[in-house]
């Protein structure tokens, strides 16, 4: 028997030369694409249409093939199809509902593809008609809300979310998508929360629900009162917030696991053998090839939750029961493929074994730890645009956390100690740290480690000035909290001081190149003022008196860098150039550092001469420092423990608009290729009762 082939809505026998036959659904689509009302000849036309398996490819292709004028001629039939789709959503038979949802996806995408250059109002008119738009869209949103909140099919819920994501992302700039006005008026916020608060729904649909919420929050957020922003900011239900946190943690954890797998695969391969033979000269280049697609959508969701909702801060440190142990889900595995957009999270409400603590008896993981690990990976390579955006967003999230009083309380809590294994960039001059040697410390130590790691590893020609500024600001905000609350943190402060001094050295060495692109004095001033913060208030938050002595030792030991910086800023502040004012600010800020150097250096030289020692040991220098504090005079500097609070609208609006545009394109692309297949979905509804 000759094989039957199916392509583009056509049925043909491969051995026959007869004209190919069209599927019935394709013939029905063709009737819609005429100027005649298809139900005139067949009163049951619309009823029959939604019993037919949707041919998405043909329907979208047909819409795209028409020009604007041709589309206007069949506008009444398009409106009629759209309205009948909405009516079908209220049907008892799930087959009709599935086909209606699929058809709506094709219609919305197809019409938007044709009308890219026209305004949103034209698209609304084309889909539903101005006169009926308000009522139809109200009915559509109410039907979707009912399907999402019902006890029924998980497959239908999945398809509803896909349709909503399709609706939200048909335009690159979601704020220009006027259809979303109806999504604002007819809110589905409560339905999204219900999905996140239920373990079963969250497992199946949590990812799509969180991405959808993040996008809706960004609709015209700077122009009008967005109800999703208002509602998200006041959510206080613990189960819902924890559910949202868990979905985000799973997605970030999956990224971390994929990266770790690739890293291990990479290290056991050819490059590993090669580098073992000839040394570590190729390590940095080799490891740059380890790449896993970043997930800006889930990071945006985390940002919005942290930024808008004070109650969500508690979720960051919350150890979920599922996160500590691997468990087998008791619910049946759905037949519907629910591939999320841009990444594939773990299949159940658990964290992968890679996320388990080193010693299960000592600790569990939490969202903040998972996020810090994620940040340590994406911030390694900022040359790639997506990673640069991800790195910036990670630092913005950490900025919000560093400003929050409650977040700081648990970050600095001595009773909440964790081992956080951050990823470190391979570098020729340092060995890879052994994971087993990681101490248990308060979480703020991991945040500071991450900042130090970034400072040390990004001194390069394409200098990420903006990220460095954010990094220093985070350190400053943490120090302000420690000073205010007199928290004596046992941290290896020397690593931070050394990193900051090396950063100043880099700025000076590359003055000409960097000044052509950046105002390096803003960053230099911030670094100098961090040292001023330690000098002025260090006795209130450094762990021991000897830590304060070590600060002076580092300043004296590296005095040449501070002397060179002073010479550079003095030169530029005495010239009448564009850098006169910013350079003079650094000059004034160096007053106490220079006082320390000028006070102690002669004393050290005198000590060496009297004792006939050519080179003093650290202990000998510290002895000189301790015995000469009383004659040191420092100036009191105001405002060192003050900072400007983070403001999205005034400073970050352009970044978020571009980020959301990128996410919208990515979500739409993933929907188009892998989430609207109907084969498995229809098996669930293979009979009509």
TrEMBL record:
GO cellular component: cytosol; membrane
Subcellular location: Membrane
InterPro entries in the record: ARM-type_fold, ARMD3-like, ARMH3_C
UniProt keyword list: Membrane, Transmembrane, Transmembrane helix
Positions of the Armadillo-like helical domain: 435-671
Designated name of the protein: ARMD3 protein
Natural source organism: Ciccaba nigrolineata
The encoding gene: Armh3
């Amino acid at each position: 028997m000759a094989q039957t082939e199916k392509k583009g809505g056509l049925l043909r026998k491969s051995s026959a030369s007869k004209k190919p036959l069209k599927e019935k659904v394709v013939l029905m689509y063709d009737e819609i694409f005429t100027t005649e009302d298809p139900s005139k000849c067949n009163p049951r036309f619309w009823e029959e249409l939604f019993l037919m398996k949707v041919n998405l490819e043909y329907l979208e292709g047909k819409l795209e093939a028409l020009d604007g004028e041709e589309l206007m001629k069949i506008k009444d039939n398009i409106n009629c199809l759209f309205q009948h789709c909405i009516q079908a959503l209220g049907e008892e038979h799930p087959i009709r509902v599935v086909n209606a949802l699929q058809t709506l996806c094709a219609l919305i995408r197809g019409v938007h593809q044709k009308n890219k250059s026209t305004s949103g109002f034209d698209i609304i008119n084309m889909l539903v008609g101005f006169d009926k738009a308000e009522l139809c869209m109200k009915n559509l949103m109410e039907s979707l809300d009912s399907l999402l909140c019902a006890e029924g099919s998980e497959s239908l819920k999945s398809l509803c979310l896909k349709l909503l994501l399709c609706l939200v992302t048909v335009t690159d700039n979601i704020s220009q998508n006027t259809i979303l006005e109806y999504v604002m008026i007819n809110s589905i916020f409560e339905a999204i929360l219900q999905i996140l608060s239920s373990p079963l729904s969250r497992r199946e649909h949590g990812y799509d629900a969180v991405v959808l919420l993040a996008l809706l929050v960004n609709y015209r957020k700077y122009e009008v009162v967005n109800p999703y922003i208002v509602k998200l900011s006041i959510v206080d239900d613990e189960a819902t917030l924890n559910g949202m946190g868990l979905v985000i943690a799973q997605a970030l954890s999956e990224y971390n696991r994929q990266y770790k797998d690739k890293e291990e695969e990479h290290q056991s391969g050819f490059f590993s053998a090669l580098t073992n033979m000839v040394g570590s000269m190729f390590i940095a280049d080799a490891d740059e090839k380890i790449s896993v697609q970043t997930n800006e959508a889930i990071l945006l969701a985390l940002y919005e939750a942290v930024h808008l909702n004070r109650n969500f801060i508690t979720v960051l440190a919350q150890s979920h029961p599922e996160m500590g142990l691997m468990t087998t889900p008791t619910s049946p595995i759905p037949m519907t493929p629910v591939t999320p957009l841009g990444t594939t999270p773990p299949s159940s409400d658990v964290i992968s074994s890679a996320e388990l603590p080193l010693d299960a008896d000592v600790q569990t993981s939490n969202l903040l730890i998972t996020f810090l690990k994620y940040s340590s990976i994406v911030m390694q390579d900022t040359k790639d645009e997506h990673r640069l955006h991800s790195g910036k967003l990670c630092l913005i999230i950490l900025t919000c956390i560093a400003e929050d009083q409650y977040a700081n309380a648990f970050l600095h809590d001595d009773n909440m100690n964790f081992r956080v294994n951050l990823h470190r960039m391979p570098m020729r001059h340092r060995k890879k740290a052994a994971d087993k040697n990681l101490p248990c410390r308060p979480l703020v130590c991991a945040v500071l480690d991450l900042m130090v790691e970034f400072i040390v590893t990004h001194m390069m020609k394409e200098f990420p000035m903006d990220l460095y500024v954010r990094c220093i600001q985070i350190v400053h905000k943490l120090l302000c909290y420690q000073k205010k609350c007199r928290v004596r943190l046992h941290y290896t402060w020397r690593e931070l001081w050394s990193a900051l001094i090396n950063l100043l050295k880099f700025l000076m060495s590359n003055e000409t190149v960097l000044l052509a692109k950046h105002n390096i004095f803003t960053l230099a001033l911030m670094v100098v003022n961090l040292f001023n913060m330690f000098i002025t208030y260090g006795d209130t938050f450094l762990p021991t008196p000897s830590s304060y002595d070590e600060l002076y030792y580092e300043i004296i030991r590296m005095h040449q860098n501070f002397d060179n910086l002073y010479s550079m800023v003095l030169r530029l502040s005495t010239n009448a150039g564009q850098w006169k004012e910013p350079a003079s600010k650094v000059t004034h800020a160096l007053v106490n550092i220079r006082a320390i150097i000028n006070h102690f250096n002669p004393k050290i030289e005198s000590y060496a001469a009297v004792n006939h020692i050519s080179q003093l040991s650290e202990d000998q220098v510290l002895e000189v420092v301790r015995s000469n504090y009383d004659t040191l005079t420092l100036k009191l500097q105001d405002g060192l423990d003050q900072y400007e609070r983070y403001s999205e609208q005034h400073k970050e609006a352009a970044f978020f608009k571009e980020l959301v545009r990128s996410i919208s394109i990515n979500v739409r692309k993933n929907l188009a290729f892998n989430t609207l297949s109907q084969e498995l979905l229809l098996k669930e509804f293979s009979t009509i009762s």
